[in-house]
Amino acid sequence: MGGVRTALYNYLFAKKNGGDFIIRIEDTDSHRFVPGAEQYIIEALTWCGIIPDEGVDRDGKVVSVPSERHPHAPYRQSERKPIYRRYAEDLIASGNAYYAFDTPEELDACRKEAEAAGQTFIYNQKTRMNLRNSLTLPAEEVERLLVETTGWTIRFKMPENTIVKMDDIIRGHIEVNTDTLDDKVLWKRADELPTYHLANIVDDHLMEITEVIRGEEWLPSLPLHYLLYQAFGWTETQPRFAHLSLLLKPVGNGKLSKRDGDKMGFPVFPLQWTNAEGETSHGYREDGYFPEAFVNLLALLGWNPGTEQELFTMDELIEAFSLDKVQKAGAKFNPDKAKWFNKEYLRKKDDATLAALLMPVLKKNGVEADKAFVERVVALVKERATFVEDMWTVAHYVFKAPAGFAEKDVEKFWKEENYSKVLELKEKLLEENPSGKDAIGELLEGYIREREWPMGKVMNCMRLALAGSASGLGIADIISFIGIPEAAARIERAAASLGA
């Protein structure tokens, strides 16, 4: 959800300001590569209606060859490997980076030594001159290690005691002293790939990105990114940054996680996702949410339009969106509000659309129904539904006779003084054969009142026979849908099954 919200805000901002929304696949961390994730991202954004201007072609594939429509291709960072090495070497040439030859074992020993002294090891201006890197080793040794070894990296040379002054669109002015920062790895010889820091700065520059809207987990990296723009001499074209707050769990404190969804029974993924271990997580699409409801929900998690309006089309979101109305504090997710959005969007859909959506549900349950008939049912039950599937749950007995009867309702209402009256009403219906819901309702109510029968007990007993339980649609509605002959047959089956 958090990733989709970030994409949505980028999309809304770009469209509001006449810009382009670009999809770039950041796959340079080989340890975190997830098979299928790329296609999942594209499919999820497409479902949400968040359509990129660049990066993904009309067939849903990431573009690798530059063209008029995709001038900045390739858009997979793994396909841009040669670009990053060159820029990393430029930083070394300008004195803003250096080669580091420390092995994982050596760095681990440094961490343990610092821990024993009650400290935390940081690779920075205080420690770099005691480590194995191009700042401490002879030039000949550096050249030899570059050729003969493959475990070296290129690190950024963080300046000493420098105040980095930054501006964030959402969080305002920020200042950080470089003495609190470490010398981040920018490029790794082992896989010849950059880290996020170098790859994103280079790509944002080359792809002419003007605004970077991302999650607050990247806020600690902002000083490094500012310094990288300075080191490259790109301050004039540096994009503006905006860091979004976290999505928070519904109960308690902390970031919303998959575990919260599993525990409380709501999805945290836009589409169903199966991880490498075979564990499947629910998706909003598969759980019956409309994409427009999901998008509307996400838009208001951290952004306030400043009005009372809660339901927005995508065009309305684009028109209303601005980063100055995005809140700094975390946004607490409310699963009940998510359902409310879906309920509202279901109600807004016309009966023909809902009937078409309900038809596959009917087919799954062994029902073949006329679309016009389904539209009539939908018109009556959609106010009771949150999801399309709910309309089947609410009115399944309209399409086929109940397979059984609710035990608690049988115990409460299926008594001789009640069902004997229902059997009498059945005969009256067959005799009079009223046409239409109103006529059926008038006959039943009039007959019951005339004989001073207990209305609630008789009607609940009759509904039990027709629908399988005492709760559900009105009796006249049910009979008008299934017809008097079918209603009579169901009452007779109930009498035979339950005893009469």
CATH architecture of the largest domain: Alpha-Beta Complex
Low-confidence stretches: none
Write down the domain tally: 4
Label the structural class.
Answer: alpha+beta
In short:
With 500 residues, the protein is α+β, with helices and mostly antiparallel strands. It has helices spanning 2-16, 37-48, 81-93, 104-116, 139-148, 196-206, 222-232, 258-264, 291-299, 314-320, 335-348, 351-364, 371-381, 388-399, 407-413, 416-432, 437-450, 455-467, 475-482, 484-498; strands at residues 97-100, 153-156, 163-168, 172-177, 185-188, 193-194, 211-215, 240-244, 247-248, 273-274, 280-281, 331-332.
Describe the SSE topology.
Layout: H1 2-16, H2 37-48, H3 81-93, E1 97-100, H4 104-116, H5 139-148, E2 153-156, E3 163-168, E4 172-177, E5 185-188, E6 193-194, H6 196-206, E7 211-215, H7 222-232, E8 240-244, E9 247-248, H8 258-264, E10 273-274, E11 280-281, H9 291-299, H10 314-320, E12 331-332, H11 335-348, H12 351-364, H13 371-381, H14 388-399, H15 407-413, H16 416-432, H17 437-450, H18 455-467, H19 475-482, H20 484-498
Parallel strand pairs: 7-8, 9-12
Antiparallel strand pairs: 1-2, 2-5, 3-4, 5-6, 10-11
Helix pairs in contact: 1-10, 9-11, 12-13, 12-14, 16-18, 16-20, 17-19, 18-20, 19-20
How would you describe this protein?
This protein has 500 residues and is of the alpha+beta class. It has four domains: 80-244, Glutamyl-tRNA Synthetase, Domain 3 (Glutamyl-tRNA Synthetase, domain 3); 248-345, Glutamyl-tRNA Synthetase, domain 2 (Orthogonal Bundle), CATH 1.10.1160; 350-398, Helicase, Ruva Protein, domain 3 (Orthogonal Bundle), CATH 1.10.8; 407-498, Arc Repressor Mutant, subunit A (Orthogonal Bundle). Helix content is 47%, strand content 9%. The protein has a four-stranded antiparallel sheet. The longest helix is centred in the C-terminal third of the chain and has 17 residues, at 416-432. The radius of gyration is 33 Å and the shape is elongated.
